[in-house]
Design brief:
The protein is of the alpha/beta class. Helices cover about 35% and strands about 20% of the residues. The strands form four sheets. Strands 1-3-2-4-5-6 form a six-stranded mixed beta sheet, sandwiched between helices. Strands 8-7-9-10 form a four-stranded parallel beta sheet, sandwiched between helices. It has a three-stranded antiparallel beta sheet with strand order 11-15-16. Strand 13 and strand 14 form a beta hairpin. Helix 4 runs parallel beside helix 5 and helix 11 packs across helix 12. It is globular. The chain starts with 9 loop residues before the first strand and ends in an 11-residue tail after the last helix.
Length: about 425
């Protein structure tokens, strides 16, 4: 394990002196005129996610390491010209419960002095944190949740949606699978905000592609027994069953679908949301040939792989796109702080809005000012067969790049009013 990995609830950059460095003559990207202004003479980045449940492997504790990598890279880039020396990263577990997420967000903002909260999978939890960000007037950059409400009716000035959403997933997977011939769908979904939003988005994409959603079936969240729901969907004799689950729930669902005999009957399985960690957990045999939409892939190109190699050295695992998204969001937040010369939320928002970004994670990226949706290229992927896997974790074949301007819901259709 690389010695950069830290322990404890709060990580300080080793070797840095506490306090604020404000220099009017900083280099490119330095502070704006008027100097710096930092709460408690430091910047605090807070990770709030599922540290122990069904979404642990999707993001979990390893995202804290990804955020620390962003801090390290920021400090290496700016050195003595950095507008703030003291940068902390702290974390909390919301256990996928919106009430707990709400409480933890308040504690992070008020007690721990968080300037920005990152990640927050589980859409119901994500929406609760968005409300706190709005009330506290503090930054919130969501990476892990899928609900389009974050950039729709429940958008606000301080919330940014970074990696993916249900519209993006449906626009890719739902459209392509339908156009390739699977017209008759049954959708099975977890009965909370994410699953409900996935059904809405996928139904729209499937119908646009000329298909029909003949039935929808809700399941508890989280859940480990899907056999009854799979049997019910199969009894309708659809061409394809779409599962809208994720993380540990998806792994259990796919296991039980493969045991159900529906595949042998010619009923296909479409996966609404999948991470590389899901494929790694079950193996490519369980998912071989499955088409899905990916926000980023660690082996996409040399730039992605270089960062993924660093992450592997730190954690022993290859990164999911949630890990990569947390790194990118943390780094872009720090770049905005550098440009503003302050951690004042309103001034940081001004630096972020409309910003065009091309980094390790975001290709052709832009932070839309209208709704704070972070748009970027995304990828239609197919899971490789066992004979095509040449190294551990290299499970995806990228079959199409969906350009940023096509990948996400247009701002004019979002319904967002800041």
């Amino acid at each position: 394990m690389n010695k950069r990995r830290r322990t404890g609830s709060t990580t300080l950059l080793a070797g840095l002196t506490a306090g604020v460095l404000v220099t009017a003559g900083c280099g490119a990207g330095g502070p704006s005129a008027g100097g710096g202004d930092f709460t408690d003479d430091k910047v605090v980045l807070a990770l709030l996610n599922d540290a122990s449940g069904v979404y642990k492997d999707v993001s979990g504790p390893n995202s804290k390491i990804a955020i620390q990598m962003a801090i390290d890279d920021y400090q290496e880039k700016y050195g003595d010209d950095a507008v703030v020396d003291d940068i902390e990263v702290t974390s909390a577990d919301h256990q996928n419960e919106p009430d707990i997420a709400n409480t933890k967000a308040q504690e992070l903002y008020d007690r721990e002095g968080a300037d920005v909260i990152l990640d927050v999978p589980t859409s119901s939890a994500a929406l609760a944190v968005a409300t706190q960000a709005k009330n506290k007037k503090k930054l919130y950059m969501n990476i892990g949740a899928g609900t389009t409400e974050l950039t729709g009716a429940q958008c606000n000035k301080y919330t940014f949606h970074y990696a993916y959403d249900t519209w993006m997933l449906a626009n890719g997977t739902g459209t392509v699978v339908t156009e390739e011939g699977d017209k008759n769908w049954q959708l099975i979904y977890p009965d909370y905000a994410f699953g409900q939003d996935m059904v809405k988005s996928f139904t729209g994409a499937i119908e646009t592609g000329g298909g029909t959603v003949a039935g929808t079936i809700a399941t508890p969240f989280p859940n480990d027994n899907f056999a009854t729901y799979i049997t019910k969907a199969g009894a309708a004799n659809p061409q394809v069953i779409g599962t809208m689950h994720a993380g540990g729930d998806l792994i259990n669902f796919v296991k039980q679908y493969n045991e159900s005999g529906l595949k042998e009957k010619g009923i296909d399985l479409a996966v609404g949301l999948m991470f590389i960690s899901d494929i790694h957990s079950l193996g490519v045999e369980a998912f071989e040939g499955t088409i899905f939409t990916d926000a980023w892939y660690w082996n996409l190109d040399e730039k992605s792989r270089e960062w993924a190699d660093r992450f592997l050295e730190e954690t022993g695992d290859r990164p999911t796109y949630a890990h990569a998204g947390n790194y990118s969001a943390a780094l872009q937040y720090l770049e905005a702080v550098q440009a503003a010369g302050t951690d004042d939320a309103d001034k940081v928002v001004e630096e972020l809005e409309g910003k065009k970004i091309d980094d390790m994670f975001l290709r052709n990226g832009e932070i839309r000012a209208e709704d704070h949706r972070v748009v970027h290229d995304v990828y239609l992927a197919r899971v490789k067969g066992p004979d095509d896997v040449t190294e551990d974790w290299d499970y995806e074949e990228i079959i199409k790049t969906i350009p940023a301007e096509e990948a996400f819901r247009p701002a004019a259709e979002s319904g967002c009013s800041m």
